């Protein structure tokens, strides 16, 4: 009697857990795990920054990325408890195996596989597709943005440099800008490119659209463009401030000044996203 009762309880628990998570939730967890593993070198890597700056900088990871991972889980766990399909298991095993490899590009490849598979095996507007859209948005800043930068770094960084040089009135050579009232130069590298910050705006916009299940119209597209514009303007402002005030280079490049610019971009994007979501919800009721 006791053995039978225990067996029934075990079976009930297995059924409960299977129904509680569902297909969307399982893949959301797998995608978030792959994302976290792809960023592990930034989170746990050594840093010379004071602890308070590390905390304010959220471990070197943008708050947009943290929010997108959280939103993917929210969407996944709120979806209908669709059971896993037979074809899901090989994909999940590959994704989970890749997260055990301590190489960031392997985890990024796993994220692409997880997001793409979930997207093509789900229907439009259903929560599973929306979770897939958030994961796909994360691949933009983790995979496709760096790939574009590696292929077109020269012209992209040169454009940033020429705009910053024009703002402060200093000569520019490729991605090198001359400090104001100085013979020294500073180099705009890939980590300071506007492309990186604009990709974060796209991630936040896609996450908001998926989280609130919005229909994309021209007004929402304008909100996304405005969010990208805010990040671009603030990044140019920081690069220009570096050239204008060379004595504050460390402060503006990697110190508290850089953190403040980062938070300003985040607040600007969040305000625009919030206004866009509120207006879209009012229009689409």
Characterize the structure shown.
The protein is 75% helix and 3% strand. By secondary structure, the protein is mostly helical. The longest helix has 42 residues, at 127-168. Residues 1-8 and 10-18 have low confidence and may be disordered.
Helix coverage percent: over 70%
Number of domains: 1
Q: Spans of 5+ residues with little confidence (pLDDT < 50)?
A: 1-8, 10-18
Biggest sheet: strand arrangement: 1-2-3
Estimate what percentage of residues fall within beta strands.
Answer: under 5%
N- to C-terminal distance: 55 Å
| Individual helix count | 11
Mean pLDDT: 85
Number of strands: 3
- The class by helix and strand makeup works out as mainly alpha
Please provide the ordered H/E string of secondary-structure elements: HHHHHHHEEEHHHH
Largest beta-sheet characterization:
3 strands, antiparallel
| Computed Rg | 22 Å
Shape: globular
Which SSEs are present, and which pair or pack?
Blueprint: H1 2-38, H2 40-44, H3 51-56, H4 63-78, H5 88-99, H6 104-120, H7 127-168, E1 172-173, E2 176-178, E3 185-187, H8 194-211, H9 218-244, H10 249-253, H11 256-283
In short:
With 285 residues, this protein is mostly helical.
Features:
285 residues; mainly alpha; 3-stranded antiparallel beta sheet; 75% helix; disordered N terminus
């Amino acid at each position: 009697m006791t053995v039978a009762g225990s067996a029934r309880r075990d079976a009930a628990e297995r059924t409960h857990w299977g129904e509680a998570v569902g297909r969307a939730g399982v893949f959301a967890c797998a995608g978030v795990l792959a994302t976290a593993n792809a960023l592990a070198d930034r989170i746990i890597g050594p840093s010379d920054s004071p602890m308070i700056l590390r905390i304010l900088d959220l471990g070197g990871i943008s708050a947009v990325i943290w929010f997108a991972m959280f939103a993917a889980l929210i969407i996944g766990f709120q979806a209908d408890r669709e059971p896993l399909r037979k074809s899901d298991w090989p994909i999940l095993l590959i994704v989970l195996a890749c997260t055990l490899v301590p190489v960031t590009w392997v985890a990024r490849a796993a994220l692409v596989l997880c997001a793409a598979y979930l997207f093509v095996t789900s229907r439009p507007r259903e929560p599973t597709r929306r979770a897939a859209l958030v994961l796909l948005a994360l691949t933009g800043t983790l995979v496709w943005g760096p790939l574009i930068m590696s292929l077109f770094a020269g012209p992209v960084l040169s454009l940033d440099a020429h705009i910053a040089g024009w703002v402060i009135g200093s000569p520019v050579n490729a991605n090198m800008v001359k400090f104001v009232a100085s013979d020294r130069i500073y180099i705009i590298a890939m980590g300071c490119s506007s492309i990186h910050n604009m990709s974060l705006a796209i991630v936040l916009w896609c996450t908001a659209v998926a989280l609130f299940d919005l229909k994309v119209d021209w007004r929402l597209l304008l909100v996304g463009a405005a969010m990208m514009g805010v990040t671009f303007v603030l990044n140019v402002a920081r690069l220009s401030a570096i050239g204008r005030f060379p004595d504050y280079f460390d402060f503006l490049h990697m110190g508290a000044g850089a953190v403040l610019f980062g938070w300003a971009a985040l607040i600007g994007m969040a305000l625009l996203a919030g206004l866009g979501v509120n207006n879209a919800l009012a229009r689409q009721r």
